[in-house]
Amino acid sequence: MARLLTAFTHALRRPALTAITAAAIALPTLSTPGFARGPEAVADVAEKVIDAVVNISTSQKVEGRAGGGGGAQQMPNLPPGSPFEEFFEEFFKNRRGQGGDDQGGGNRAPRRVSSLGSGFIIDPSGIVITNNHVINEADEINVILTDGSRLKAEVVGKDQKTDLAVLRVKPTKPLKAVKFGDSDALRLGEWVIAIGNPFSLGGTVTAGIVSARNRDINSGPYDNYIQTDAAINRGNSGGPLFNLEGEVIGVNTAIISPSGGSIGIGFAVPSKTVQAVVSQLQQFGEIHRGWLGVKIQQVTDEIAESLNLKPTRGALVAGVDDKGPAKPAGIEAGDVIVKFDGKDIKEMRDLPRIVADTPVGKDVDVLIVRKGKEEKKTVKLGRLDDTEKPVKAAVKPDEPADKSVVQKSLGLQLSGINDDLRKKYKIKDSVKGVVITGVDSGSAAADKRLAAGSTIVAIEQEQVAQPADVQRKVDSLKKAGKKTALLLVATAEGDMLFVALPIE
Predict the structure, then answer these.
(1) Highest CATH level, class, for 1-7+39-67+106-287
(2) Half-sphere exposure of residue 408: CA atoms within 13 angstroms, side-chain side
(3) Is residue 237 flagged as an active site residue?
């Protein structure tokens, strides 16, 4: 049931918009001169490409669970007129007829759960693109063509991080296929067309505009979505988003909706990303992503001021993997990467996507800012192991700390590391520096969520070993007229993070 209920929506609540009275604005009507109802080309495009859009039917065997009243699944409460009402009513009626959950009793036999999505054909020989979440964990996958014929599909490859999958079917004759367009050439306000299988209704055409580009919806490390107001609903997952040339410029993947239905905020993976992923899945059956071997964080205005970086931009290196490509290239914690392989890094999230798209083994020029000055490094890019754990930065040994000193600075209570503190806060032996033993409530440090058990490794990229080192560094920053101090802080596990604190 959980799989059956799973939709591809991101259910987020949004405050209602303030109503605008008719007196405040005059809305156009169909009789208003010059009012456009949309481009006439929509019908031509739909007719041209619809045979290349397919329905994806999957089924999965799930184990039965112990019965009894407590395990029974009930018809969910739905608002009157909900598009799901008839769907669930039919579902539970069929289950009752099959001796389903409401029968009670003992252990139930394994049963099959079905789901539907969308896809499209990119090669007449039978290559089909869809979303990974449409076919993930399915035991059986069928591609349903517009004429109703069903073709059994096998998975060529899939990628969870971009939510894409490539399928192969074996047709008796060449299939209708569509081509990719250039998603980078899309303009805001440009008309687009979505075709798919919403609510299992079959080939459905909706039209809208490009509302935004490069959207990050926190669904993965490579978010770069096209946002559109073309109606996208449950079942549209994996379907194509077309431009008015009939080219695929995106794969419909997610929507924001409190109800599960379209409210005009849909997201598609851009074709530039899709093409790169599909090419690798066809070639290797998996993704070979570039790997730099750094842990990064966002450059805030406070951090930029501390680093003398103008304007605020780039990705701040918080840690360097000992075995990664960045270390032999001379990249260090505290560097800000502002350009990678000739591409500007405007903000942190740009870097992972650009690095991942760069060929493994390529020698890449990386422009960094270190202590206010630009430097160029050359990195031979490695291959990302998607199963690896997050990068933990290497920490150089420090001088023995004064274990007895406890003082306040920057709203923090500090102490040198000793065995008791390591045991109390479970601090790894590799972590060196000055331990935070307390945080003043109401301080900037508390606002930054610093907590007892974290360790200050460096201030302004200079190592600290004792609380007195922290105070001396803060005093020197005050004399230099600095307003903030940039701290490199390690968690008990050794993960690194830069934090900018105001100097009071």
Answers:
(1) mainly beta
(2) 8
(3) yes
